[in-house]
Design goal:
By secondary structure, this protein is mainly beta. It folds into three domains: 84 residues, RNA Polymerase Alpha Subunit, Chain A, domain 2; 90 residues, Beta Complex (RNA Polymerase Alpha Subunit, Chain A, domain 2); 89 residues, Beta Complex (RNA Polymerase Alpha Subunit, Chain A, domain 2). It contains five helices and 24 strands. The longest helix has 20 residues.
Length: 313
């Protein structure tokens, strides 16, 4: 076959495939052109880019803005969260209050979507020079130690941490807080690694995020002795009689002055548990209950003689 003949016949090679492609393109055009153009309101995230080094935002900036979009109904129905994003370039920001326009050109959209309107059309922001300094950690505690004990000195390691933020907020900072350390029922020192935080949302921690807090638990400063408290015999079996010798004891309490002053005779009970014991002579330990404001430090005597006899004639 000559070259001229091959050139004449080449346009007709795979003619069915070419006709199929044209048909599909025509069908796609008919589908797209047949879709209705609609508008829709969306709330989209606002991203801040190129914030100059050494500057800090003073105010809360809106996390989202409202936009009105236009496009084919099918295209808009496929728009997902994150497909449309408003981007605000802050490379021109300077110290003080500034107004930054927000236009449709600053909104990223998928192909086939048009931005009709952005609300608000401008965002006001205030900037201050960035600053940092070290402030002390202020440990916090939760709960009450065991009766007769009090919370003593608190310490943290490290003692200070560096906070960073707008210059005015850094100057106001006086302390860094910790999550509370539980001392409920404690009789010995408590150590716990806790998370650090600042109350001012404009501030942040430069490095440290946690600290080791030590809470000293100390015996309460004062004691008070209740004398001749009766010994109660608990859980005596049926048809049994019991007698304690001596029948009374002295109970020493420890606590704060105001707490000890509130303790009355009805708030303290000396007792012996006789559960499971039958007739006989026993030397048993005396226990004592007290109010939660004061702890029992001593019972004198610590043991008494208990005689259990049959109650039947």
């Amino acid at each position: 076959m000559t070259l001229s003949r091959r050139l004449l016949t080449r346009p007709f090679r795979h003619v069915w495939l070419k006709l199929l492609s044209v048909g599909l393109a025509l069908l796609l055009w008919l589908v797209v052109s047949g879709e209705e153009t609609v508008e829709r309101g969306l709330r989209v995230p606002l991203e801040l880019t190129q914030v100059p080094a050494g500057l800090e935002l003073l105010d809360e900036v809106p996390a989202t803005v409202d936009v009105r979009v236009r496009g084919a109904s099918g295209t808009l129905s496929r728009v997902a969260a994150g497909d449309v994003v408003a981007v605000l370039d802050l490379h021109t920001a300077k110290e003080g209050r500034r107004l930054f326009p927000l236009t449709p050109d600053q909104v990223r959209v998928p192909f086939g979507v048009e931005i009709v309107q952005v609300m608000p059309s401008a965002v006001a922001m205030a900037f201050e020079p960035s600053a940092s300094r070290e402030v002390p950690i202020a440990p916090a505690v939760d709960g009450q130690p065991a009766p007769g004990y009090v919370v003593g000195p608190l310490s943290a390691e490290p003692r200070v941490v560096e906070v960073v933020g707008p210059e005015s907020a850094v100057k106001r900072a006086t302390e860094v807080l910790t999550e509370p350390v539980s001392v409920a029922g404690a009789r010995t020192h408590v150590k716990q690694t806790v998370i650090l935080g600042v109350m001012d949302p404009a501030l942040r921690l430069k490095t440290a995020r946690s600290a080791m807090v030590t809470v000293q638990i100390l015996p309460a400063p004062l004691e008070r002795t209740l004398r001749n408290e009766p010994v109660h015999l608990r859980h005596l079996g049926p048809n049994l009689r019991a007698e304690a010798v001596p029948p009374v004891v002295d109970i020493t309490l420890r606590g704060k002055r105001d707490a000890l002053g509130r303790v009355g005779a009805d708030d303290v009970a000396a007792f012996i548990d006789l559960a499971g014991l039958g007739p006989g002579q026993y030397s048993l330990t005396v226990h004592a209950d007290s109010s939660r404001d004061a702890g029992v430090t001593r019972v004198v005597p610590e043991t008494v003689q208990v005689r259990i006899t049959s109650g039947t004639p």
